[in-house]
Amino acid sequence: MGKVFRKQVFVCTTEGEGRCAPKGGLEVLRKFREEVKARGLSDILVTKVGCTGQHPTGPTVIVHPDGLWYRTVKPQDVAEIIEKHIVGGQPVERLINPEMQVKPQ
Ligand code: FES
Question: With a 6 A CB cut-off, is 13 part of the ligand 1 pocket?
Fold first, then answer.
């Protein structure tokens, strides 16, 4: 079997006016990668994702398999998301996008 990850963090880095990159998506991606590496979280995969239609409240971050979407994420929010959600299992309520979630029925 190949590598097994515990969670995957998708960060929208789409370029274009009003999209997530000019709102800081690339810095958020970089910060997630830095923090995951610094903490030795080798079972956490951080990847870019394309537009999900949520850029009015971007940068968008999605945590899989939790089906949880964050909005207006700033680089300074990343340590908190990692600490509370990725490590601690408690989503950061103030950043949750209430418009979007994925829930198995
Ligand atoms: S560009 Fe990021 S959600 Fe659309």
Answer: no
The pick from 54, 73, 100 for probing ligand 1's pocket by mutation, whose C-beta has the most ligand atoms within 8 angstroms, reads 54
Per-residue pLDDT tens listing for the chain (105 residues):
789 999 999 999 999 999 999 999 999 999 999 999 999 999 999 999 999 999 999 999 999 999 999 999 999 999 999 999 999 999 999 999 999 989 888
CA of 54 to the centre of ligand 1 (A): 5
pTM, full prediction? 0.95
Using DSSP, state whether 58 is helix, strand or coil: coil
Set out the domains of the chain in order of their start, with CATH numbers. Answer: 7-101 (3.40.30.10)
**Cβ pair 52, 101 in contact under 8 A:** no
